[in-house]
Amino acid sequence: MIETFARTLPNGTTLSCRATGTPGRPLMVFLHGFPEAAFIWDELLEYFAQPEHGGFRCIAPNLRGFEKSSSPTEVSAYRAHLLVQDVAELAASENPDGRIEVLVAHDWGGAFGWGYANQHGDKLGRLVIINSPHPGTFTRELLNNPAQQAASAYMNFLARPDAEALLSADDYRRMWPFFTLMKAGPDGFGWLTEDVKNQYREVWNAGLTGACNLYRVTPMKPAAPGQPAPQIPTLPRERLTVAAPTFVLWALDDSALLPGLLEGLEDYVPKLDLKKMPGATHWLIHEQPQFVASEIEAFIRRTS
């Protein structure tokens, strides 16, 4: 059974959370992306709390700006280091040493997963990334790869001042294509049922400003039409490396995040375990949750 609760952190942020398993057990944290919420992890929360699958304490927060979590309106409140701090303080609220045994992250959650693994590597056992670019390879591709620049052009739309109004109009008419254009509808993988749509409506009805602020605050965007390329900072190597064993599960039919983002990843992640998934899209967690769970479990066993 999944429990839901609000957890107020020392930094003043309150995160609405979904959790399973016994508090005090090894901690497994799941981070969602856009335009999603913590509920996407429910099947994995149930799976990994079971004794035969590790008996973890599993917790999936709604990131700040999503669902019922704190949603400050200032763009600066969504700088990456602040969301990484949320993750660290959430872990510390679950156990005295703040250790996360397994951190699983997708999309924007992965951006903060990569950051957490770099900044708090001494408190992390393993990292699992599902279709979320490493900042080193993402910077390279945004600067040099026209195909990735084109694939990421949507980021500039989501950063517009009127993005929330445009996205929410006409029953979120501009939101559903994020899913349906990657085979989510009844003619594709079929997971986007009316019940699931209602889960999304409930999340989006709580507000979209926090989610859009992630796109406004990040410098990691391609140039907008007629505009000069943004100044993407080049981080020093020590800000990009990840020492923990890392499993990257990558759906190859992701039209927003292209396979070029995987090239050179091992230079930043020495203990890299990479699996490429043909015939799957950015929404792999919805499409094949049991497959995702079994692959993560196999990785945990390989690295135990």
Can you give a write-up of this model?
With 304 residues, the chain is of the alpha/beta class. Helices cover 36% and strands 16% of the residues. It has an eight-stranded mixed beta sheet, with helices on both faces. It is globular, with a radius of gyration of 18 Å. 43% of the residues are buried. The mean pLDDT is 96.
Question: What is the compact description of this entry?
Answer:
The chain is of the alpha/beta class and 304 residues long. It has helices spanning 42-49, 80-94, 108-119, 135-144, 146-151, 154-158, 163-172, 176-180, 194-205, 209-217, 284-287, 289-302; strands at residues 3-8, 14-20, 27-31, 57-61, 100-106, 124-130, 246-251, 272-277. 36% of the residues lie in helices and 16% in strands.
* Tally of separate helices: 12
Shape designation: globular
What is the helix/strand order? Answer: EEEHEHEHEHHHHHHHEEHH
Structural class: alpha/beta
The oligomeric state is single chain
Are there runs of 5+ residues with pLDDT below 50, and where? none
What percent of residues adopt helix (DSSP H or I)?
25-40%
What is the radius of gyration? 18 Å
Mean pLDDT: 96
Care to count the β-strands?
Answer: 8
Strand content: 15-25%
Main pleated sheet: 8 strands, mixed
Strand order of the largest sheet: 1-2-4-3-5-6-7-8
First CA to last CA: what distance?
A: 27 Å
